[in-house]
Design brief:
Order of helices and strands: HHEEEEEEHEEHHHHH
CATH class of the domain at 2-119: Mainly Beta
CATH architecture of the domain at 2-119: Sandwich
Largest sheet: 4 strands, antiparallel
Radius of gyration: 18 Å
Strand content: 15-25%
Mean pLDDT: 94
Structural class: alpha+beta
Number of helices: 8
Number of strands: 8
Shape: elongated
Strand order of the largest sheet: 1-8-3-6
């Protein structure tokens, strides 16, 4: 089980045996239930998570309407980086869509990770670069793609997850109401 954690980090940086010991001493494994929150709007994010098994959604609340803007699944790192880095109240929520097993590290232990792991700071930089690229891509898609294109983008980015995500979350991610998503899916099916 700790192999999942170590191999996820090794996707970014190599780890020596000593580094691996430090990693395993800093991260804690836990399970959260479907519907539970890792972070709620207004709270300050103080953890970085790695998803071992399960599925999370990131969403904001706009006048009582949930707007889903990202999903994270197995082997993804999850966090509200803006809140974590600025120690500011979160403007988004992170919620488990299904029972989820995570590895978690506190902000203070993450600082130790950066100092004690040989390429720890490089790991942090590479995580931030990935987050920045995802954010830019999602921002541009939102303003330049039609709902049909955004749904196609969803299918491309999250193809392995589409059967695990409720349709109303997918509709929210695409930026349409569920009946509109049904029409988009029907049109796409008729074209193939």
């Amino acid at each position: 089980m700790s192999d999942v954690l170590l191999s996820a980090i090794q996707q970014y940086i190599p780890l020596s045996a000593k580094d691996a010991e430090v990693v395993l001493s800093l991260f804690k494994r836990k399970t959260i239930e479907k519907g539970d929150y890792l972070l709620k709007e207004g709270e300050i994010c103080r953890q970085l998570y790695l998803i071992e098994k399960g599925l999370l959604r990131y969403f904001i609340n706009d006048d009582g309407r949930d707007i889903t803007h990202f999903f994270a699944a197995e082997n993804d790192f999850a966090c509200n980086y803006e809140s974590l880095l600025k120690s500011s109240p979160s403007r988004k929520n992170i919620q488990a869509i299904e029972e989820t097993t995570i590895w978690t590290i506190s902000q203070s232990d993450l600082d130790l990770f950066y100092k004690q792991i040989e390429q720890g700071e490089r790991f942090g930089r590479l995580l931030m670069e990935k987050e920045l690229l995802n954010t830019i891509s999602r921002f541009l898609e939102h303003y330049t793609h039609s709902p049909e294109q955004r749904y196609q983008d969803f299918l491309t980015q999250f193809s392995a997850l589409q059967q695990r995500i409720p349709q109303y979350y997918i509709a929210s991610y695409v930026g349409v109401q569920p009946p509109s998503l049904s029409r988009i899916r029907k049109r796409m099916a008729n074209l193939s």
